[in-house]
Amino acid sequence: MFSNLPLYFKKFSVPVLFFIMGLLLLFAGIKGEQNSMFLLSSLMMFLAGALSIVYSSGVLSIKVLYILGASAGAASLVIFVLSYNSVDETATYNKNYALCRGKSIANLEDIRYIQKAHAERFGRYAKTWEELVAYTKTGTVPFVVSEGVVPGRKITEAERDYLIQFGLYKANQAIDFNMTEKEAYYLSKWANSPEDLKGFKRDTVQRSLLEMRFKNKAYVDGRMKAGYGKFYPDSLPYVPLSGASRKWKLETVDSLQIGEDKLPAMKVSGKIPFAKIQGKADEELWMGSLTAPDIIGSWEEE
């Protein structure tokens, strides 16, 4: 009997190995909640090992084994096609998830920029999407016009006397340092402005928010490079890749008591139509808070 052990080992080792591996993978797949393709592949390996053991024992005829083998081969081909489609579908899903999440974050950052500009202008955040979109199209933001440089010299006594009216000097005050940016600004407005300040300009003007933020070359190129496409103000309220079926939830508070101060607060939140793991609940993103005056995004706290 023991003399036949090498023969039995040679005959059954490979089938038993496949049988055990298939059984372990099947058990691990069920316990680990693997997808159907993994479970089906594990089952095929388990059955292949079982059939090999039965055939090696001499119970099955070669004809029956050929039939079962052909059936298993056909099943394997079907599994391969299904697996390929599943992998392709997963890759497409992951690509859409990355695009949707990235575009959603960009969307929320744009909303934050507009709301900050609105709050600086009116002392509160836009309460509705209609108000925010309208401000995006017609609102303005301050822009500093800077031309010329401050001369590298001390001011004259006549210039000092002119600057007294602005509270920068007192009568007969010593002139110890070179001209400052503020001094140059006031002197450039003087009727007797010196020659080295001709063309000097430091003014704050209002410019179109839409032009300054959303039509500048760096912003446009950045969106195109990321695959987000052209910016449209009317798309701001909608969650990207949702087919305009989902809107961000916009909430605002005009006067939130923070110590002795009263400050505006806002929160924009919503669920994107994808999750990091396919099949899980949709991921939620938000920006801001209704209990604190901060406008930090959830993605910035990760």
Description:
This protein has 302 residues and is α+β, with helices and mostly antiparallel strands. It has 3 domains: 2-90; 104-140 and 208-300, no CATH class; 149-199, no CATH class. Helices cover 50% and strands 14% of the residues. The chain has 8 helices and 5 strands; from the N terminus they run H-H-H-H-E-H-H-E-H-H-E-E-E. It has helices spanning 5-31, 36-56, 62-122, 129-138, 157-163, 181-188, 209-214, 217-226; strands at residues 140-147, 201-208, 249-258, 261-271, 284-289. The strands form 2 sheets. Strands 3-4-5 form a 3-stranded antiparallel β-sheet, with helices on one face. Strand 3 and strand 4 form a beta hairpin. The model has no long low-confidence stretch (mean pLDDT 82).
Which helices and strands occur, and which strands form pairs?
Elements: H1 5-31, H2 36-56, H3 62-122, H4 129-138, E1 140-147, H5 157-163, H6 181-188, E2 201-208, H7 209-214, H8 217-226, E3 249-258, E4 261-271, E5 284-289
Antiparallel strand pairs: 1-2, 3-4, 4-5
Helix pairs in contact: 1-2, 2-3
